[in-house]
Design a protein that fits this description.
alpha+beta; four-stranded antiparallel β-sheet; DNA-binding
DNA sequence: AAATTCTCCTGAAGGC
DNA sequence: TGCCTTCAGGAGAATT
């Protein structure tokens, strides 16, 4: 499932292939994505040059002279560079056709988005309220501490809030909290500066490692060439419920926080401050480890 | 306002 | 084998 490292991996794969290239055609096979794909995308993009390829959070921006293609991979989306004559398969929804190859958007679960945006994309509804990029110096312990003031929710939900920091999805939130030795249910306003510093550093470290590994492939992520990511092998907690903690060998626990699977080590990630915890958690009974690949 | 729950979708996996 | 149910999850929308 694409999080920031997977989107960054995709960006690095497609950028050299499409930058400064002319869009010679566009094929839309399925318009029902998260939002309908408007037919005017065709006329707006035809014969336009890709002037820049950027990322903001988990959004990809293909900038043209008169507007921007705003793309989100959702849960199961991928963008691949393929030879021009590659036959389309079931969930291949959109092709951008260039002189030598095509950029194909595939998304079985159709949680993704493919939008045309005019004007400054940073002011678009979907982008203007996004928080800081985690891999910039603006994201640090002091920032987290300041943002956490008077917020009443679990730290895991807080770091997954895109208005605080972008790009931290469920997998990397679990991993970063383990690395920072912070219990996912800790009330975020109770974290001291040292803990915030640890957490910010852990998020950066986990995301950087995952980008270096080409992302995490659980079921269906692959990069623009169709290669899987190798970070799955480095996962410390995600998908490892009931298996031994790599630090202390005790079994990892699984709960649900905000309807997301949350895996942590009950002995390495201890809540120190009081009140002890926030956000309702559902304990998952008879949980089986379900990591794939 | 902030926190919480619901919702979209398909494929995989489990139960019987 | 096969049908049925359940689950996964990003993030906006709806609700509390």
């Amino acid at each position: 499932m694409p999080e920031l490292p997977e989107v960054e991996t995709t960006l690095r794969g497609i950028q050299p292939k499409i930058l400064h290239q002319v869009i010679q055609g566009i094929t839309i096979r399925h318009t029902q994505l998260r939002w309908p794909v408007t037919p005017k995308i065709k006329s707006k993009t035809l014969n336009q040059v890709i002037q820049a390829v950027e990322r903001r959070g988990k959004y990809l921006l293909l900038r043209l002279k008169n507007g921007t293609l705003l793309i989100h991979l959702g849960m199961s989306g991928k963008l691949r560079i393929l030879p021009k004559d590659t036959p389309a398969q079931k969930h291949d929804h959109i092709d951008l056709i260039f002189s030598h190859d095509i950029l194909r958007f595939t998304d079985p679960r159709r949680f993704g988005a493919f939008l045309w945006v005019e004007g400054d994309p940073s002011q678009h509804m979907l982008l203007k309220r996004l928080g800081v990029e985690p891999l910039t110096t603006a994201f640090n312990g002091r920032y987290l501490k300041q943002q956490a003031q008077r917020r009443v929710l679990a730290v895991k939900l807080f770091i997954m809030d895109n208005q605080v920091v972008v790009g931290v999805g469920n997998i990397y939130a679990n991993e970063a909290l383990f690395l920072a030795k912070i219990h996912p249910q800790t009330s975020v306003s109770s974290l001291d500066l040292a803990e915030c510093n640890r957490l910010a550093r852990a998020i950066k470290q986990v995301l950087r490692s995952a980008i270096r590994a080409g992302g995490t492939t659980l079921r269906d992520f692959s990069d623009s060439q169709g290669n899987p990511g190798y970070f799955s092998q480095d996962l410390q907690v995600y998908g490892r419920q009931n298996l031994p903690c790599f630090n202390c060998a005790r079994p990892l626990a699984l709960i649900k926080l905000g309807q997301r699977a949350t895996v942590f080590c009950p002995s390495c990630q201890v809540i120190t401050a009081s009140p002890p915890s926030y956000s309702k958690a559902v304990h998952v009974r008879n949980a089986k480890s379900n990591i794939s690949n």
